[in-house]
Design brief:
Blueprint (H helix, E strand, L loop, with lengths): L2 H14 L2 H33 L4 H7 L1 H21 L1 H18 L9 H29 L7 H33 L1 H23 L21 H21 L2 H9 L4 H20 L1 H5 L6 H21 L5 H29 L5 H30 L1 H19 L11
Helix pairs in contact: 2-3, 2-5, 2-6, 2-7, 2-8, 3-15, 4-5, 4-6, 4-15, 5-6, 5-8, 6-7, 6-15, 7-8, 7-11, 7-14, 9-14, 9-15, 9-16, 11-14, 13-14, 13-16, 15-16
C-alpha cells in the first residue's frame, strides 16, 4: 500500500477512536517525549560533569534544585491544574523544559555550577508539572460508571507509568550516545527542537478544560486530609529515596571509576535497567493479582520482598560486577511492582473532583524522596562507598513496608 494511503488509513482509525482514548494517546505521547529528554539530560549531566573533574557529591548537588523545586511544583502544580486545566500545566512543563535545555547550550566555559543548578531547577519544575498532569488526566479520562472501573484504571496507570519508565531508560542510553557522538551542547539542541514540535502538537490538539474544577479551590486545599493518601505519600518518600541513594550518582560513578566502564556502557546498563523496570510495570496488574488481599497487605508484602535485596547485595563482593548487575536487575523487577502498585493506589484514592491536588501532594512526597536519595547518593558514596548506599537503601525500603501497615485494609475504605 502506498505511504500516503497508509497514513490516511491510520488517521481514519485514530479519528474513529473514542474521544477519551484519543486524549489518552496524546497525553501519553506527550509524556513519552518529555521523559526521553529528561532521562537523557540526567545522564548527560552526570557523565559530562564527572568527566570535567567534579566529585560525586558535587555532581549530586547539581541535582538538588531539580529535586527541591519538584517538591514545591507538585503542590502548586496540582492546585494550578485544578484551577486552569491539566492541558495548560502539561504544556507549561514542556515549555520550561525547552528553556532549561536552551540554558545549557551556552559555551562550556559558561557552564558554572550556579547556572547548571538553575537550569536543573527549571527542568525539575517542568518534569513534575508534566508528570502530575499526565497521571491526573488518567483519572479524569477513565470511565467511572462500570463494574470494571478499578481494573481499567490500574491498567491505564500501569501502561502510562511503565511505558514512561521504559522511555526514560532509553533516554539514559540516548544521553550517553549523544555525549559521545555530538557532545553536550549538540545534545541540548537536538532535544530542544524535538520538544518544540511536541509542544506545538499539544497546544493544537489537547482539550482545554481537562481536569479543571468547577469550583476554584483554595491553595490550602493542596495539603491532603486523607489518611490513606498521607500514609501512601510517606511510604512513597522512603521507596524512592531507597532507589536513588544508589542509582543516581553512586552506581554510575562506581562503574566508571572502579571498573573502567565507558559512557556508552554505563548509559547502556542504566537504560536496560529502567527499560526493563518500565516493562515490568506494565505487567504489574497481573503480578500483584497473584497476591490476594487489600491495599495494606499487598503494599507491605511487595515492599518486604524488596527490602531484602539491597542487604544481599551489600554482603556480596562488589568487585564481582556480574553479581552486582544481576542483583540490581532483580531489584528493578521488585521495585517496578512496588512503584506501579503505588501509582495505581494514589489515583484510586484521589478525589474525582480535585484529583490533581491529591496526586500533586503525593508526588511532592515522591520528589522529596528523590531529593533525599540524590544527596545521600553523593555523600554516602563519597564517604563510605557503594556498600553503605545499599545498606541505607535496605533501611528505607523496610521503613516503607512498615508504613504500609497503616493503609486501609480494604480498597473500599478509601472511597
Amino acid at each position: 500500500m502506498p505511504e500516503g494511503r497508509v497514513a490516511e488509513s491510520l488517521g481514519a482509525r485514530l479519528r474513529a477512536l473514542p474521544f477519551e482514548i484519543r486524549q489518552y494517546l496524546l497525553i501519553t505521547g506527550n509524556y513519552w517525549a518529555f521523559t526521553l529528554t529528561d532521562g537523557a539530560l540526567r545522564m548527560l549531566v552526570v557523565l559530562h560533569f564527572h568527566q570535567l573533574g567534579y566529585s560525586p557529591l558535587e555532581v549530586a548537588m547539581l541535582f538538588v534544585f531539580y529535586e527541591a523545586f519538584g517538591v514545591v511544583t507538585n503542590l502548586v502544580g496540582g492546585w494550578l491544574g485544578a484551577r486552569l486545566g491539566l492541558n495548560r500545566t502539561m504544556n507549561l512543563g514542556l515549555g520550561l523544559q525547552i528553556l532549561a535545555l536552551s540554558m545549557l547550550m551556552v559555551p562550556a566555559a559558561s557552564l558554572s555550577v550556579p547556572w547548571v543548578m538553575a537550569a536543573q531547577a527549571l527542568s525539575g519544575i517542568a518534569k513534575d508539572l508534566n508528570k502530575m498532569s499526565a497521571k491526573s488526566a488518567v483519572k479524569v479520562l477513565v470511565p467511572r460508571d462500570s463494574a470494571q472501573a478499578n481494573s481499567a484504571l490500574y491498567r491505564w496507570v500501569a501502561i502510562l507509568t511503565g511505558s514512561k519508565n521504559a522511555l526514560k531508560g532509553l533516554g539514559f542510553f540516548l544521553g550517553g550516545a549523544l555525549l559521545t557522538l555530538i557532545g553536550f551542547r549538540g545534545a541540548m539542541v537536538v532535544m530542544a527542537v524535538m520538544l518544540a514540535v511536541v509542544l506545538g502538537l499539544s497546544l493544537w490538539r489537547l482539550r482545554a478544560d481537562l481536569g479543571r474544577q468547577k469550583r476554584k479551590p483554595k491553595f490550602t486545599e493542596v495539603f491532603s486530609q486523607s489518611r490513606a493518601i498521607n500514609v501512601l505519600s510517606a511510604a512513597r518518600f522512603c521507596l524512592f529515596a531507597a532507589r536513588d541513594v544508589w542509582f543516581v550518582v553512586a552506581l554510575p560513578v562506581f562503574l566508571y571509576d572502579q571498573h573502567g566502564w565507558s559512557h556508552w556502557t554505563v548509559g547502556g546498563l542504566l537504560a536496560i535497567w529502567v527499560i526493563g523496570y518500565g516493562g515490568v510495570q506494565t505487567q504489574a496488574p497481573r503480578l500483584t493479582g497473584l497476591v490476594g488481599g487489600g491495599p495494606r497487605f499487598v503494599t507491605a508484602f511487595w515492599a518486604a520482598w524488596l527490602a531484602g535485596l539491597p542487604v544481599l547485595l551489600a554482603l556480596l563482593p562488589l568487585a564481582q560486577v556480574g553479581w552486582l548487575v544481576a542483583g540490581l536487575l532483580a531489584f528493578g523487577v521488585l521495585f517496578a511492582i512496588n512503584s506501579s502498585w503505588h501509582s495505581y493506589l494514589i489515583v484510586h484514592f484521589a478525589r474525582a473532583d480535585g484529583v490533581s491536588m491529591d496526586v500533586g501532594f503525593y508526588y511532592m512526597a515522591n520528589a522529596m524522596g528523590r531529593l533525599a536519595g540524590t544527596v545521600l547518593s553523593g555523600w554516602v558514596y563519597q564517604v563510605y562507598g557503594l556498600s553503605a548506599c545499599l545498606w541505607v537503601s535496605a533501611g528505607l525500603v523496610a521503613a516503607s513496608a512498615l508504613m504500609a501497615l497503616a493503609l486501609p485494609r480494604y480498597a473500599q475504605a478509601a472511597e
